[in-house]
Amino acid sequence: MDINLPRHVGIIMDGNGRWAKRRHRPRSYGHNAGMDAMIQIVKRAKEWDIRYVTVYALSTENLKNRPQEELDELFNLLRKYFSNHVKELHKRGAKVRVIGDKEPLPADVKQLLEEGENNSPPDGEFTLTFAINYGGRAEIARAAEILREQNAEITEQSLESRLYTAGIPEPDLIIRTGGEVRLSNFLLWQAAYAELYFTPVLFPDFTPGEFDKALKEYSRRTRRFGGI
Prior knowledge:
Structural class: alpha/beta
Distance between the termini: 28 Å
CATH class: Alpha Beta
Order of helices and strands: EHHEHHHEHEHHEEH
Strand order of the largest sheet: 3-4-2-1-5-6
Number of strands: 6
Largest sheet: 6 strands, parallel
Shape: globular
């Protein structure tokens, strides 16, 4: 299909737990299904030559408020993904980035994330960013603290250059699955002019075809950036 495509898509992957509950399965079952769905969406984005995808994998609030059993399963998923799939992404020319505070994560998970970043091709044709223990407010506060420590002037440009996402273009489209209609602390600064797409589809059911629907909707919108 001939459509106007976004350069950068952010995805809030919501609904894994509810998807599992409807099937009378543990939440971990939904998170596994969600990871499989994410892999398919990333492949689809690359087929469309979308150069940047950022996925919201674990928020700062998730880390504080989710039961430890569920967090352990999420960490196991990260171990599985970064052990089994990231090397293949590298071979396909993908650059992997991780944004968020990695310090509170288990040491082996932190190491896997850092290896995924450090072993990425320097000039990758596609960038996949994982937001892990990430919060938009904390990111902005961190950037401001860095400027204070550097005794640097605070401007939009200087603050933006200290964000986790420095060097990545702002998202053109943010997709949220699962029926909720909010950003939930995801890319708050960067999403200032992003187009938002909300769908009731739970993330494990968010197929490449559903992703195409979001792209079609995006192509029908006119982005004015404050103009007429």
